[in-house]
Fold each of these.
Amino acid sequence: INMALAKSFEKLYNNIYDRLSIQQLILIENLFENISKYTLDIETAEYLNGISLLKRLNKTILKDLIKAKNCRNKISFVYNAPNSGKQELEFYITDFEFRSKKLYINGYCPTFKDNSFLLVSKIVSPITFHLEKGLIEDLTKTVVLELKNASFLNYQQNENEKVIKKNSNSIKIEYKSDNEFKLLQKILAYGPDCTVLSPIDLKQTIKEKLKTMLEVYKND
C-alpha cells in the first residue's frame, strides 16, 4: 500500500462517512489501522491511521453513547462547553450528526429543557445510565413567517413548511420546529427579508437578539 492508494481510501471515506452508522465508522477505523501494517513507509501508515474522523474520540464514551441511543434511556455526563466550562448534563440521545466533520449527539436535554446538540469530543466523564425513561416535553413551535425581496423570489418549500398565502411581492409560510436554536438561526439567516408574524414571544426574542447584536457593533 503506497501513499496514492491511501489518499484514494481517504477520498472514498470522505464521500460516504456521513451516510454510515457510527458502528460502521468504528469498523472502518479498525480497518485502516489493520491495512496500515501493509506498508513499509511510516508516513503512509500514519496517513492511513489519520483518516478516520473518530480517531481522537474516547471509544469507551462513544460506545456508551451508541448504547444510550439504542436503549433510549436517560444518561448523564460532564460536558466541557466551550463558553461556560464543565457542567453535568442529563440527556436523551435521538441520533448522531456530523457538522464540519465533527461528531455531535442530538436529543433532548432535561437540564436545559430544550432539544440540543452537543459535541462528542467535549464529553469528559464516563456515561451514567439511568433506569427511568421519563417523558420528553414536546417543544414543537409553530411559527408564521413573511418573506419578501430575494428570499421571496428564491423561496423553495422545505420539510415542516406550509405556504399560507402568496401574492406578487411576498409569501407567508407556516414553519414547525422543535429546536429553538435552529429556528432562530433560520430566521436570522433571512436577514431583513423575513418578518416573524407569530408567535408573539418569538417576535420578542428576535427583537432582543437583534438589539444585543446592535449594541455589540455600536461599541466596536
Amino acid sequence: LEDIRKDAMTALNDTERTSLASLLATPLVAASVPTNIPARAFVKEWTMKELVPQLDQVSKGRSFEKGKNAFLGAQCVLCHRFGSIGGAVGPDITAAGNRYTRTDLLEAIMDPSKVVPDMFQNVVITTRDGEEHTGRILTDEATKVVLQPNPLQPAKIEILKSNITKQDRSKLSPMPEGLLNVLSREEILDLIAYLESGGSPNYPSFQK
C-alpha cells in the first residue's frame, strides 16, 4: 500500500499536491503521539562544526533508551512518525537511517530549510492590505483557502481568494531550528543512533 501511494504521489501536479496535502501526510496506519512531554532547559546552541567530528562515536556504546528520550525531548515525535509513535505533520522517518548518512541526519535536524520536500512546504499568502500569512493549506475552495499557520495548533485562517494578491511557496521549513539545543552532546549522539536503528534496541550501536 505504501508503494502504491508513493507511485500515485509522483503523478500529482503542484495543485493536486496542495489540495491533498493533509491526506498525503496521513500514515496508512495510525501512530500514537505521546502527550505531556516535559519541557527541557536550554543546554547549548550547537553547530555542525562541533558535532560532525563526534559522529564516529555513534557506532558503539550508545543508549537506546536515552536516544528514544532525546527523540521525545527534542519534540521530534510531535511531527515525525518513527515506528509506532509520532505525528504526521512531517515525513515518516522510520527508515531514514537506511537512506541518509549520519551527517545528513544531523544536518536535516540542524538546518531543516536546506531541503524541504514539496508536499511539506508551507505557502506564503499576501493579501491586499499587505499582510503575509504563512502556513499549510488545508482546503482550497472556489472562493477561499483555509490556512493552518502552526501545524501543532488547531488555529486556522480563512482567506478569500478575492483578497489574495500573491501566493508563493515558502523557502523556510515548517520544522523549527534549534531543536537540539535542549540536548547534551551524548544525547545527540544517542539520538542519531536511535534514528539509524529504525527503532530496534538490537542495533549494533547499542551493544556493549
Amino acid sequence: PRTSNGTDVDALAAEPGVDVRVTVDADLAREADLLVLPGSRATTSDLAWLRRTGLADVVRDRAARGAPVLGICGGYQMLLDEIVDDGVEGDGTGSEGGAPTGSVAGLGLLPGRVVFFEDKVLDRPTGRWRGHDVEGYEIHHGVVTPEGGEDFPGGHAVGPVIGTIWHGTLECDDFRRELLREVATTTGSRWAPQAGASPFAARREQMIDVLADAIETHVDVDAVLALAQETR
C-alpha cells in the first residue's frame, strides 16, 4: 500500500518479451517467473499487510521451491531475519494505518538484519556483477547487515532470493539482461534478450520527448509558468 520508487520496474517492462504485472493477486504472484517486492515508505507496516493478505506465504512458498524473488530497498528489508525500527518509520501502534516499532521479525529468507537510523542514506553507488557494470542510487533510513549468502550489488542473495538496497539498477541494460537470463534458466523460460533492442536510457528519453511534445501542443506553457511565478 505504501510502495515507493515504483519506477524500478519500468526497465523490466520495456524489455522485449517481458510482461510486468503490478498486482496483489496471490495466484499471479505465485506463478510469475520473477516476483519483485518493491521499496516501501513504511517497511514494517507493509510487511504486516503482506502477512494479513497471505502474500507473505506466497513469497515463502516461492523461496522454498526455488522460484526467483527480488526485493528492492524496503522489499529487501522485509526478506531479512529482523527489522529494528525505534520510531523512524513506525509509530508504535501496529494498527491498520500505523506500524509497529522495536524489533520485528522479517520473512527470514535472507540472513541478516536492518536497523533504521534518523539520518537518511543518500548515495550514487556503482559495482559489478557477473562481469557487468551496475550503478544505482540509495535513499533509505535502514542500514542492512548481511549475515551470509552471496554478494549482490547493494545487497546479497541466497539461491533464487535476491535483495538489494540500491534503486535503479535494472536500468543498466547488460546487468538487467543477465539477471533475466538467470531467471529464465531457473524457471525453464525460453526468454532471451532480443538482438538490437533499444537501450532503456534511449527509450526513456523518447518517452520524455513524446511527453514534452504533447505538453507543448496542448498546454499554454507560458501561462503555466506565469502562474508559477505568481505563487512563489
